[in-house]
Amino acid sequence: MRANLKTLRWVLLALYVAVVITVLDLTRLTNSLLSLPHIWEMPFEWLSGSLFEILLVVVALVSLQALFILLPWAANMHRPIPSWRLAVSVAIASLAMPVLAFAVYDSAVAVLVEFLDADILEYPYAFWAILGLILVICSVGFFVACRYKDGYTALKNLVCIVIIASVAGLLVTISSHIAILMRGSDYGWGLTSFGIAVGIVVTLWAFGSGIMFLFTHEKSKSTLVRKEKAHHGA
Asked: Is there a contact between 153 and 213 (Cβ–Cβ < 8 Å)?
């Protein structure tokens, strides 16, 4: 079982790295191999760029994952995380929520403009205030919910929340993209493409953080076993 877990985590990590590199450069890949229609290449054009830009995005993703996981891990992961360490992880997870909300809003705007001829192309002050409110509510809520949990459970719960939110956001933006595609529009899919690109980045961050838990699972389990033996021995 232990050997299977070790193999699985390295396989998943290799697949994850391959997916990240492919997604960040998928525009060139699709142009040369798959010849996707431009409306399906558009989401990946938001993510493509020079080699330096691609590496910059990868470094940013990995750095945020490391801060999210390893900073609390430097403390005892089977006790409540010190407040300042928890605050960093909570801030990173909370930031994903208004970002996803922004992506969903763009997709909703595209659908409303295309199907209802609504005139809501601008971002009013109330919109930015709502995004700020989402950030504050998520930050406070996550912090309070995780404050007295052991670090391993707290971070795992945060990762699960971000994964669920990012997948839900992707479903909304992709559905909007398909609806506009079927309508034959030349305008709205620019907004939905941006939403898909944002959803992909957040999802990659969340799943990458989840894979990192596989590398801490064995240590976590052994620590719990030692604590139980010490407790029964006492």
From this structure: no
What are 145-149's contacts with CB under 8 Å, separation 24+? Answer: 146/81, 146/86, 146/90, 147/80, 147/83, 147/86, 148/80, 149/80
d(CA 147, CA 200): 29
- Global pTM? 0.76
Q: Could you give the CA distance from residue 176 to residue 71 in angstroms, rounded to a whole number?
A: 38
Please, where are the H alpha helices in 25-124?
26-29, 38-45, 51-73, 83-116
CA dist list (Å): 1 to 8, 153, 212, 220, 222: 10, 22, 18, 16, 14
pLDDT beyond 50 at 36: no
Are the C-beta atoms of 81 and 153 separated by less than 8 Å?
A: no
Distance between CA atoms of 99 and 129, rounded to whole angstroms? 13
Are 180 and 111 spatial neighbours (Cβ–Cβ below 8 Å)? yes
Delimit the domains of the chain by residue range: 2-233
Closest to 2 in 3D by CA, of 224, 229, 225, 219: 219
Please give the Cα distance from 155 to 90 (Å, whole number).
9
pLDDT at 84 over 80: yes
Neighbour tally for 47: CB within 10 Å? 20
Distance CA 221, CA 39 (A): 47
User: Cβ distance 167 to 203 under 8 Å?
Assistant: yes
Give me the chain's average pLDDT, please.
75
pLDDT of residue 29: 46
Q: For the segment 114-161, what is each residue's pLDDT rounded down to a tens digit? A: 777 666 556 677 778 888 999 999 999 999 988 888 777 888 889 889
